[in-house]
Write a structure and sequence with these properties.
This protein is of the alpha/beta class. Helices cover 20% and strands 36% of the residues.
Amino acid sequence: MPIDVEAEVLWNRRLSPDYNVLALAAPAIGARVEPGQFVMVKTARGQDPLLRRPFSVFEILHADDGTPTGFTILNKRVGTGTARLYVAMPGQTFSCLGPLGRPFTLVDPPVEAWMVAGGVGLAPFATLAERLRERGCLVTLFYGARQAHELFAVDLFKNMAVRVVLATEDGSCGVRGLVSEPLADELERREPDAPLMLYACGPEAMLIAVSQLGAVHRRPSQLAMERVMGCGMGGCFSCVVRVRDGEGGMRYVRSCIEGPVFRGEDVVWE
């Protein structure tokens, strides 16, 4: 069951004029969270903004003895709530509800894991990569953004022995174009019987591309869907996703409960 805690800000690392990583002291959440799960953060004591904001857990923080002490979130300043998180100071507290949602399903060797991230869709992959590397899996991160200055934490993944393939729309770093393009190229070269799992998080257009590439190359995929979430507990129905029901029909499900991770082959795109 999720828990609601008052989490103290431990530190705030600003990555750019719009992005930051915020560390929150929440041992109970840090001890329970699985890769792909999220938290709902209330960014103000009053009613502006009224609703909490969903954030994938980025990293799990540990004490010297390995005990979980909290977690970090990757924040992009786009509105009132996220602006408050951007300027948060150590010692401030924020109400955090979590962990929430269905996590990624982990694979074991000899299955390789290819993670595909766009923008802040990078967030769930630090914990996923860590867990997969602990299991001995070979892990590749395909990471895309519009420009080079919007690519973050690359060294974090390289230090976990994750192979990193970068792409920018303007060609300022890595492959020029969308991140799905180097993914498509490598899938073409991949031996068809070599076991592989695709994981993806990012803009919906990118998720569609990954699920379609998975279908073409007969590779399973797991997609962390970015949906507007008002409550995170299934009460507001703001985060619905259309999926196949297994009997030839379709149904709508709440991403905060039956997701945010879905099998790519189950999602019905609008």
